[in-house]
Inverse folding.
């Protein structure tokens, strides 16, 4: 995917307060994520997410995040929250992910993994609109604040992908230049506590992504 054809999209995940949702939109964030995975410190109920959804600015997408949720649970979230995108972090198969009639992206655990099997990934999830490379796996849980080895993402990956895991205002510039992603995803790196977003960190994160977008990419890398 040619870096010169797009700007880096930004998703802030693990929203628990309407004010944070509103600020994300004002800062120009493209999407916010509501977590429905059991055990997550950022987990919200569908009714809470539905209330926060009213704070979304125009053209900001709502993403529903799951990890091995039962189908009925996913359907209830789709009914109440009306997300524009689903994000699956568990062992869900393609048939399950696409059965809800909403576009989805699949999270891929990168911590403790070897080289990415691009062909196998695309064959396993042919209906995925994109992938999210995260730092979970190898005993680490999603949202742990850890990073992974960004060089594991092969150059020229031709499906839209997001980079997540331990991204902060201090390292997202480097991450964006190292991976040239379609988008970046942050949760703990823009928080003062789990689920409690920090306005200054949110602003600085967006500024650093935009700074990376303005960085001139050598032609040979842009065409990878």
């Amino acid at each position: 995917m040619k870096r010169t054809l797009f700007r880096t999209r930004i998703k802030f995940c693990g929203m628990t307060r309407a004010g944070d949702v509103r600020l994300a939109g004002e800062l120009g964030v493209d999407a916010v994520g509501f977590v429905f995975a059991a055990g997550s410190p950022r987990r919200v109920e569908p009714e809470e997410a539905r209330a926060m959804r009213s704070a979304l600015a125009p053209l900001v997408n709502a993403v529903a995040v799951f990890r091995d949720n039962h189908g009925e649970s996913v359907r209830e979230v789709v009914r109440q929250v009306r997300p524009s995108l689903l994000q699956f972090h568990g062992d869900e198969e393609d048939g399950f992910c696409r059965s809800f009639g909403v576009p989805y992206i699949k999270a891929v655990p990168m911590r403790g993994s070897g080289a990415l099997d691009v062909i196998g990934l695309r064959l396993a999830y042919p209906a995925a609109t994109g992938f999210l490379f995260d730092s979970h796996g190898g005993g680490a849980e999603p949202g742990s604040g850890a990073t992974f080895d960004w060089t594991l993402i092969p150059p020229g990956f031709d499906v839209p992908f997001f980079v997540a895991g331990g991204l902060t205002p201090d390292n997202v510039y480097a991450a964006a230049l190292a991976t040239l992603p379609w988008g970046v995803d942050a949760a703990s790196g823009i928080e003062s506590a789990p689920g409690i977003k920090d306005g200054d960190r949110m602003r600085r994160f967006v500024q650093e992504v935009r700074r990376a977008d303005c960085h001139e990419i050598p032609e040979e890398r842009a065409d990878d």
Observations:
- The first strand starts at residue 9 and ends at 12.
- Helices lie at 18-26, 46-53, 71-81, 94-97, 118-124, 172-179, 199-213, 219-222.
